[in-house]
Amino acid sequence: MSGADTNQPSTVKSYIDSGVAAVQSAVGSLTGNPADKQAADNRKAHADLEHDASHVSAKAGPFNLSSSGAATIDNKNRRDGKADQLIGSGKEFVGNAVGSDNLRREGQQQNSEGQGKEAAGQVADFASGVANRVTGAIGSVASGIVGNKEAQTDFNTQHDKGKTSQRGVEADLQK
């Protein structure tokens, strides 16, 4: 929903285009006009591609990049949680290898605590991502209406960073 760059993939726009395609298809079916039917099929295919493109994201460690072009870094709890899981798993492995029940249990506990931290960080990143997307979209529209291009750009950036944070969590959850 970034008003400044209409070439960016948009999930909302893909839904609108799918709806328009359905109406075009219905009109084509009623009139028997193959051109209307073909136009509807083309629009639907484009909407499907746009929807897929709007969900593209890349994740490298704690860094996230989405189709919006914005970059974010994971919440500190997510980073610390992953580190605790890694260290805890190492302690479990070593504890099992050397026969130390204390080290193995300590590793299991640290791993479990890390999972909790990571989950809390994911919830925080997802919630702030959604909030930034909504605030950015609304602010961008309002700024566009009053003609404040600088504010509109700032709100678009806020929206895009929110989208990137949200997609980063989604990428982690799909693993």
TrEMBL record:
Originating species: Morchella conica CCBAS932
Annotated protein name in UniProt: CsbD-like domain-containing protein
Stretch list, region Disordered: 27-121, 151-175
Regions of compositional bias (Basic and acidic residues) in chain numbering: 38-54, 157-175
InterPro entries cross-referenced by the UniProt entry: YjbJ_sf (IPR036629)
Highest taxon listed in the record's lineage: Eukaryota
